[in-house]
Design goal:
The structure holds 2 protein chains of 2 kinds. By secondary structure, chain A is an alpha/beta fold. Chain A is about 30% helix and about 20% strand. In chain A, strands 1, 2, 3, 4, 5, 16, 17 and 18 form an 8-stranded mixed beta sheet that branches. In chain A, strands 6-7-8-9-12-13-14-15 form an 8-stranded mixed beta sheet. In chain A, helix 5 packs across helix 6 and helix 9 crosses helix 10. Chain A is globular, with a radius of gyration of 24 Å. The two termini of chain B are about 10 Å apart. Helix content of chain B is about 30%, strand content about 20%. In chain B, the strands form 2 sheets. In chain B, strands 1, 2, 3, 4, 5, 14, 15 and 16 form an 8-stranded mixed beta sheet that branches. In chain B, strand 1 and strand 2 form a beta hairpin. By secondary structure, chain B is of the alpha/beta class. The chains are: A alpha/beta, B alpha/beta.
């Protein structure tokens, strides 16, 4: 144990040295923005992966007023900028996890901490951002993995999904993973309308009685048809509502908040984020959106590989569930989900990786790396956790690459950000140097220091 | 596969397998068992050999004879007639040992009706056709500690298996491995998250009651043991016509625990319950072999180390329930630094497919060395299961249970190329891919045959409408699709990960 304590002392010594040498940096690593934060930062001598061109060796990145002011090999460092020497480090755009329940759920098994799924089947008017808790411990834990922005997606499952999630689940919000208030965290309040595409289920599990339930196929099919009819009805009513809004004043019709929420959908301004995994449901959802002339983003997509032509011909992007998921069927190849991204990429289908979870959001990079291991080109994997989710949700003018004018969501790492053993050394959200402290690190430090009993 | 065991996100996926007893019709296309026995002599050449016990050998060779490692070194001459695996540019390490698994179990893993279910035995319900055996093999796993669930303070008996895909259930158990028994503390045995409407609460419903349940069972076991001891003493002393004590199948395994003939693997989360079990174990004079999950183990690492118990934990699961809210990815590192033998386990058929990656997380979170990280999925779980003389390192005389990767196994970019058990290749990525087309053809043919038969039956029925009951309604007869529906609906449910 002498050896162990020696290394512990050594490590503490290093920590102390860092604290001693860089007090200004540490002071700045607070939730953003801090009153006395520097006006500008200059990250120098780094290898910069802008994802908007070739990597820049020995590059400089200037951050000012929350935005990227300049990036390149020959960039002048402004006088008022705090300089961070990033020699030997690499700079990337922060990662973007497009399906999470961030801020909506703290502890899966504790109902009172869960706000991710509203009851009832049709809730187009509920908006994730409303229920995002800026104090969630998940936010700083996820940040350390290099993720700077996410979508908080209502009714997207995760650990509280013991029952049905409803057909229209509500509106997903894009949020930064830092901020004093939910307003600080807002990247875009409404980016997509969640639809859980109905499934024909003959066998279900009733969690209230903990027993299996079975019904005949015809009955299950009828329920499926009923839900699709209802969904169609909602869309058609919303279309009429939109027409009425265009023609008359409030005196002519009574206001309906649910239909009003669907108006941007029928006007093609808000995409549907449709959760479907099996080919039959995906196909039905695509046909539905075609017929209704709605913009669709597919979520889940475990069998997207069976419908490559359809998805490509309609330019439907996919948010893939983690590739570290077992195949749907016993007789599928064991690497069915692992190898799908390579197949979709080769077919020219745009996709992004999502964690579809909260406490597992930090596995986003790991999942992307695993897809590379099974044939996806590395650059595509990197873009599928940065640029592509931004493009898919119409946010690429703000985040996803390191280009001047974009919001400065930036990570500085000691290696490939998708690799398990790499670490994030600095992280900026909206141009603010953001704390890498979190609940896990605090507990680690506290109990590492516990004296021997 | 951890319905009551640990984690929620897989709940729905698990329901498909355990609760609904889904029978997937398509059978075992996913992999044919190797048809030939292991070659008597096999030579793996040109590999980076991660021995775990004595460093890494570049461009090394491993000679395997009759399923055992016969020689390990820089250059080994190829014996006459040896089969050769050229592992140029590849990495060989000992097969991964998963210290907490629920694969290969037929039906539910929980006998949850009583809080002491020590009479049931997982070894009795092994299912050698579970496709998860093959999937985990493809992730480099060669040995799994197959446990009962965690619905009970004292759960069922457990068994260590080798993932000999294709072998009958009788050949799965690891020969000579000490049997175990599952204990569980905290929210699961007190049924915090599993109340069933209309059903009365089962005792225990608190951590206090969990302790008393275990104490009561061991009090009974101790009395029972002394009756047997007395009986045995008197019969061996020559007394005749004694009536033996009545056999109690529930207490027999607990007596084995008291006698050190059965390992205790205890599911736990919180620091207080870990100390509670150590106290109870001391009171009754038994040892806790491993604490499983042990997510707050880092808070009482010194006490665990002093007790001699091992700790088998998750890499980074947290926040799915209150007792997992203080779970940290540094857990394995802190416990290791304080002298606990630590392993990283899966508790889940999917998680098991990348335990090498999960081990790597302790390098980032807590600063373990590469060697320490890899030990947590090889020799450390072997020590915890008492099979370290047989497996867990690449040393002469040990079983040739090996996994071959195309890259450094601590990287997320590493893919398993081959998995060997007892010197026999049970998984081969190249072969798996090559056989896919044939399997697909076989599947199509089987489906067609089934369709043909259906339409044939239909014709028959139409001819003699009065002789037979009505044929199934459209869709209903399509058993194939239907089971797939259930399976996939549940597996693909948003909770899957």
């Amino acid at each position: 144990m002498n050896f162990v304590s020696a290394t512990a002392i050594l490590r503490n010594g290093v920590i102390l040295a860092v604290v001693f040498l860089f007090p200004a940096l540490l002071a700045a690593q607070q939730p953003t923005p801090k009153a006395d934060a520097p006006k500008a930062y200059a990250l120098v001598h780094a290898k910069i992966f802008t994802l908007a061109g070739a990597p820049i060796e020995n590059g400089t990145l200037i951050i000012r007023d929350g935005k990227i002011a300049a990036v390149g090999g020959q960039v002048e460092v402004p006088q008022d900028a705090q300089v961070i020497n990033a020699e030997g480090l690499q700079i990337y755009p922060g990662m973007f996890d497009p399906i999470t329940q961030m801020g909506l759920r703290e502890i899966g098994a504790v109902n009172s901490t869960v706000d991710s799924t509203e009851t009832g089947n049709y809730n187009p008017d509920v908006v994730a951002l409303t229920a995002v808790s800026p104090s969630s411990e998940h936010i700083p834990v996820t940040r350390v993995a290099g993720i700077t922005e996410v979508l908080a997606v209502p009714a997207s499952g995760g650990m509280d999904s013991f029952g049905p999630s409803g057909v229209i689940g509500g509106q997903a919000s894009a949020i930064y993973l830092a901020g004093w208030t939910v307003d600080d965290m807002q990247l875009k309040r409404s980016v997509a309308m969640v639809v859980n595409w109905p499934e024909i289920q003959t066998k279900t599990f009733d969690f209230t009685t903990f027993s299996r339930k079975e019904k005949p196929y015809t009955e299950a099919k009828q329920e499926y048809d009923k839900q699709v009819t209802e969904l169609t009805d909602w869309i058609e009513r919303a279309r009429h509502y939109a027409q009425a809004m265009g023609h008359g004043g409030p005196a002519d019709f009574s206001r309906d908040l649910k239909l009003e929420a669907l108006v941007p959908v029928v006007r093609g301004q808000l995409p549907l984020l449709v959760f479907a995994d099996r080919s039959r449901e995906i196909r039905n959802a695509v046909e539905f959106c075609d017929k209704q002339n709605l913009k669709m983003i597919l979520a889940g997509g475990s069998e997207a590989y069976k419908l490559k032509d359809l998805l490509r011909s309609r330019s439907i992007p996919v948010i893939l569930r983690p590739v570290l998921t077992l195949p749907l069927y016993e007789d599928d190849p064991y690497d069915r989900l692992l190898s799908q991204p390579a197949e979709l990429s080769a077919a020219g289908i745009k996709f992004a990786f999502g964690s579809f979870d909260n406490s597992f959001a930090r596995r986003l990079g790991q999942n992307a790396a695993n897809a590379v291991a099974y044939g996806l080109p590395y650059d595509e994997a990197l873009k599928a956790v940065t640029l592509y989710p931004a493009q898919i949700f119409g946010l690429a003018d703000q985040v996803g690459t390191l280009e001047s004018g974009k919001i400065a969501n930036v990570i500085v790492t000691n290696g490939d950000p998708l690799e398990i053993t790499s670490e994030v050394r600095y992280l900026f959200i909206r141009g603010q140097l953001t704390s890498l402290d979190n609940r896990h690190k605090r507990l680690f430090e506290k109990y590492s220091a516990r004296p021997k009993p | 596969m951890n319905f009551f065991c640990a984690k929620y996100p897989r709940l729905i996926a698990f329901a498909a397998v355990a609760a609904l007893n889904v029978i997937v019709v398509c059978g075992t296309f996913a992999a044919d068992p190797p048809d030939a026995a292991a070659p008597p002599v096999l030579l793996i050449q040109n590999a980076t050999i991660i021995t775990i016990s004595h460093g890494t050998i570049e461009h090394g060779s491993i000679l395997i004879r009759d399923g055992k490692i016969a020689e390990v070194g820089q250059s080994i001459a190829k014996p006459q007639g040896a089969e050769v695996i050229d592992a140029n540019g590849q990495f060989v390490m000992p097969g991964i040992i998963d210290c907490h698994s629920h694969i290969a179990v037929d039906g539910s893993v929980n006998e949850g009706s009583v809080s002491v279910s020590s009479m049931v035995n997982i070894a009795d319900v092994l299912n050698p056709d579970d496709i998860d055996i093959y999937r985990d093999l493809a992730g480099g796993v060669t040995v799994a500690n197959v446990l009962h669930g965690s619905a009970n303070s004292i759960g069922g008996q457990t068994v260590v298996i080798k993932l000999r895909w294709g072998a009958p259930a009788s050949r799965l158990p690891f020969e000579g491995a000490m049997p175990g028994i599952k204990f569980a503390l905290g929210e699961n045995p007190k049924r915090s998250n599993f109340s069933i409407r209309g059903q009365e609460k089962r005792y225990p419903a608190t951590r206090m009651g969990v302790e008393e349940t275990i104490r009561a069972a061991f009090t009974e076991a101790r009395d029972y043991k002394s009756k047997w001891d007395d009986y045995n003493k008197r019969t061996s002393g020559g007394e005749k016509n004694l009536i033996p004590p009545r056999r109690d199948l529930r207490l027999d395994p607990l007596v084995e625990v008291l006698e050190g003939k059965r390992y205790v693997h205890s599911h736990c989360y919180r620091e207080d319950e870990i100390l509670m079990l150590l106290r109870v174990a001391k009171e009754f004079g038994f040892k806790v072999r491993t604490f499983q999950h042990v997510l707050e183990g880092y808070k009482v690492a010194d006490e665990i180390a002093a007790s001699g118990a091992g700790a088998s934990t998750f890499s980074d699961w947290w926040a799915y329930k209150v007792e997992a809210y203080d779970a940290i990815p540094y857990n394995a590192a802190i416990m290791t630094r304080r002298g606990v033998v630590v392993s990283i386990n899966s508790d889940d058929a999917e998680e098991a497919t990348h335990l090498n990656q999960e081990a790597a997380k302790s390098i980032r979170y807590g600063g373990l060395s590469r060697e320490e990280a890899l030990k947590m999925v090889t020799i450390n779980p072997a020590m915890q299961l008492g099979i370290d003389k047989r497996v867990g390192t690449i040393d002469v005389g040990k079983d040739a249970d090996l996994v071959i990767y195309n890259h450094d196994p601590l990287s997320a970019y590493a893919v398993v190329q081959k998995t060997l058990i007892d010197g026999r290749v049970y998984f081969d990525r190249v072969r798996d891919i090559a056989e896919r087309a044939d399997r697909e053809k076989e599947k199509k043919a089987a489906e067609k045959k089934s369709e043909d038969k259906k339409s044939e039956d239909k014709k028959q029925n139409e001819k003699k409408p009065d002789d037979k009951p009505m044929p199934p309604q459209s869709g209903q007869g399509s058993a194939n699709n239907e089971t797939h529906e259930v399976d996939s609906a549940l597996v693909s449910a948003r909770g899957a990960l």
